[in-house]
Amino acid sequence: MTPTLSWDDKIAILHLGEGENRFSPDFLDAINERLDDIERAGAQGLVTTAGGKFYTNGLDLDWLAAHAERTQTYVARVQALLARVLTFPMPTAAAVTGHAFGAGAMLAMAHDVRVMRADRGFFCFPEVDIRIPFTDGMAALIQAKLTPRAAVASMTTGRRFGGEEAAELGIVDATAAEGEVAAAAADLLRPLGGKDPGTLGAIKRTMFRAAARALTDV
């Protein structure tokens, strides 16, 4: 399913899809096109969400296995998306309605805030168990958003966090009931409407300069 765009007043709701929402090249193209649309429309906030079992399962490992010679270019594209969301010039929230694994969890981490479904779904960085070390950029992104305690607990263990556990550790900012996650995420952004995008974008680029540079210098 191609990512789709809808609106809650002036807040853009970017729906990633109903499947695993893995980062295929076509998926990356579509996400960036929607982000372009959102910026052009002068949105006052961005919520990303999904349907079904997953928020996003991250890297498209099947595509990578079939195109191993393009791994470096592919990873660079994924990291460029993470950097773009990290410094996006408006308030952003990830509405984590299902599982968020690996690079999918990193996409959620790149947002300003995260709301996760309280009763179902896992937030997980499985890299230690699947024997794929974090790149410098991915590690820098996670460590820019989490306390040292939360970073160690999530990055070195492969642990799967439910919503309440993730909130207790500060991995997500809030939880919500089924069917209310996207609305709760939008409500967190609503008081921030009207921030000047140029100023906010500049602040984010300054705040996260080291992480954004690590993500894009590949």
TrEMBL record:
Keywords: Isomerase, Lipid metabolism, Lyase
Example of a GO MF term: enoyl-CoA hydratase activity
Native source organism of the sequence: Mycobacterium parascrofulaceum ATCC BAA-614
Upper classification of the organism: Bacteria, Bacillati, Actinomycetota, Actinomycetes, Mycobacteriales
PANTHER family: ENOYL-COA HYDRATASE-RELATED, ENOYL-COA HYDRATASE_ISOMERASE FAMILY PROTEIN
SUPFAM superfamilies, A to Z: ClpP/crotonase
Group of enzyme by EC: lyase
Protein name in the entry: Enoyl-CoA hydratase/isomerase family protein
Superkingdom: Bacteria
EC number: 4.2.1.17
CDD domains with a match to the protein in the record: crotonase-like
A biological process from GO: fatty acid beta-oxidation
